[in-house]
Design a protein that fits this description.
Blueprint (H helix, E strand, L loop, with lengths): L1 E5 L4 E4 L7 H12 L3 E6 L2 E2 L16 E7 L2 E4 L3 E5 L7 E5 L10 E2 L9 E6 L3 E6 L4 E5 L17 E6 L3 E6 L4 E5 L17 E6 L3 E6 L4 E5 L17 E6 L3 E6 L4 E5 L17 E6 L4 E5 L4 E4 L18 E6 L3 E6 L4 E5 L23 E6 L3 E6 L4 E5 L17 E6 L3 E6 L4 E5 L18 E6 L3 E6 L4 E5 L18
């Protein structure tokens, strides 16, 4: 008999079999004790879940300590990666093999023996993991950063990684930057390397990077058309405190609240028409094509394509005392100080309350809002009482009518491009939106009463971690919606 005891004092027992996998012992303890992922130890040494009891030197009657671990999920556009802070196991991936899911379901292997993964960053088709010694391991599409062989020797003391669609940029503790992946998307920064010193922040569009240095100056590289060239605004990029981006443009906030923009005009790179209004700016939010600047007095200034949220004149009188702004790809929704909501942008994609279950003549319904979440083309608002209302493109989650009676005591909402997933107070999940991409979760509904503690999404699928460490997936099978090929591997996490 093996006894597995938690630090809290709770325990369970497993019949001793010297050929039993410690991964199976761990999985049994997770289910029986209703706890998340465990790190097993005995006599002060960490046990490898891939070993048998005999290989680990365990004997009948031994007591094993279970240390509860928090699992982390990351996602590219079509694949998931999951890991715990545990040097004994690999990262497990599933989904589309060309978008970061390894052929053999687990990655890193001996490259990181004895080292922990502390964070994983993803672009559209590759992953990059920071290890606890500050080195980096990448995998996935080689052209998008999965191949990092040319810069591997420079990836040391890394503290953060940022990504464009097909490249990565790593920030080191000494303020230097290392970039790799598609050259067109910012993967090679040889022309600006001499200037990439004392960097404190990196921001990205879909194909360019911008680096903010400690002296408030900025350098950019990658696709010129998407913000990779600052030549026209370089004299103004001084005393910058923060950088925000759309798909193809950057906006930099300067020390006294002025704003400098560059990049694609159709993505907000040209703010000339509103420049006199851009002062005392505290924060900038963006969707894929437009910017919304929140000023110190609670007002908002917007720019970019008018039909995609760049023009807020129709609701400008209502945009006062803003607290926060959320965005779909083509519209914005702002929560005001009185917890009411104002929307603008493309009407079909969330910029109007006329799409969805709301009465468009009764805007007062959108009050007492606690939080807002979005898909590509719809918004969902959680009210203070835990109920939910949604609007926007119906097949992207804008119509929640069929599940409205179940949307009670909602604590948070996660989304992919087309679907909302609401986590309720009892740990169950309710979904709506495009059925093929996760809006129909009926096949796993009995398992999504877990309770669920965390949800992550690719563009078309979801993965939920339950309180007992189980992983439940649904949505488009080949893009992360089915984890059945790695079900065995998940017990080793």
């Amino acid at each position: 008999m093996l006894r597995i005891s938690l630090v809290s004092g709770r325990s369970t027992a497993v019949n001793f079999d010297d050929q039993i996998s410690l991964g199976e012992v761990k999985a049994f303890a997770q289910r029986d004790l209703r706890v998340g992922f465990l790190r097993l130890s005995c006599g002060g040494r960490i046990l490898d879940p891939k070993q048998t009891a005999a290989e680990a030197g365990l004997k009948d009657g031994d007591c094993v300590t279970g240390i509860v671990q928090e699992a982390q999920l990351a996602a590219t556009s079509r694949a998931f990666a999951i890991h715990c802070h545990n040097p004994a196991v690999n990262v497990v991936t599933w989904g589309h093999v060309h978008y970061g899911a390894d052929d053999h379901s687990t990655v890193l292997g001996d490259q990181r023996s004895g080292r922990n993964v502390t964070a994983i960053q993803a672009n559209l088709s590759a992953f990059a993991a920071i290890l606890d010694d500050g080195t980096v391991v990448a995998w996935g599409d080689p052209k998008a950063g999965g191949d990092y062989s040319l810069v591997r020797h420079r990836l040391t003391n890394v503290i953060a990684i940022q990504a464009t669609d097909e490249a990565f940029a790593a920030l080191r503790s000494d303020g230097q930057v290392v970039a790799w992946g598609s050259q067109r998307h910012g993967g090679l920064s040889l022309d600006v390397l001499p200037a990439l010193r004392n960097v404190t922040q990196i921001q990205a569009t879909q194909s360019a990077f911008a680096a903010l240095r400690s002296d408030g100056s900025v350098s950019a590289w990658g696709d010129d058309a998407c913000g990779g060239n600052t030549r026209l605004v370089q004299p103004h990029l001084k005393k910058v405190t923060h950088i925000q981006s759309t798909n193809g443009a950057f906006a930099a906030i300067r020390e006294h609240g002025s704003v400098v923009t560059w990049g694609a005009k159709m993505c907000g790179g040209d703010s000339h028409s509103v420049q006199p209004l851009l002062h005392n700016v505290k924060k900038i939010q963006s969707n894929r094509y437009a910017f919304a600047a929140l000023k110190a007095d609670g007002s908002v200034v917007t720019w970019g394509p008018q039909s995609r949220g760049g023009n807020s004149l129709a609701v400008q009188a209502s945009l006062v005392n803003l607290q926060e702004i959320q965005a779909t790809d083509y519209a914005f929704a702002a929560i005001l100080a009185d917890r009411s909501v104002v929307v603008w942008g493309d009407p079909q994609h969330g910029g109007s309350f006329t799409s969805g279950i709301l009465d468009p003549n009764s805007i007062s319904e959108i009050r007492n809002v606690a939080a807002i979440q979005s898909t590509k083309s719809a918004f969902a608002a959680i009210f203070a009482d835990g109920s939910v209302v949604s609007w926007g493109w119906p097949d992207h989650g804008g119509d929640s009518w069929e599940v409205q009676d179940r949307l009670k005591d909602v604590k948070q909402i996660q989304s992919n491009n087309f679907v909302f997933a609401a986590l309720l107070g009892d740990g169950s999940v309710v979904t709506w939106g495009n059925a093929g991409y996760g809006g129909d979760s009926s096949a796993v509904e009995h398992r999504l009463r877990g309770p669920v503690v965390k949800i992550q999404a690719t563009q078309t699928a979801f993965a939920a971690i339950l309180a007992d460490g189980a992983v439940v997936t649904w949505g488009y099978d080949s893009e992360g919606g089915s984890s059945s090929p790695v079900e065995r591997d998940l017990i080793y996490i």
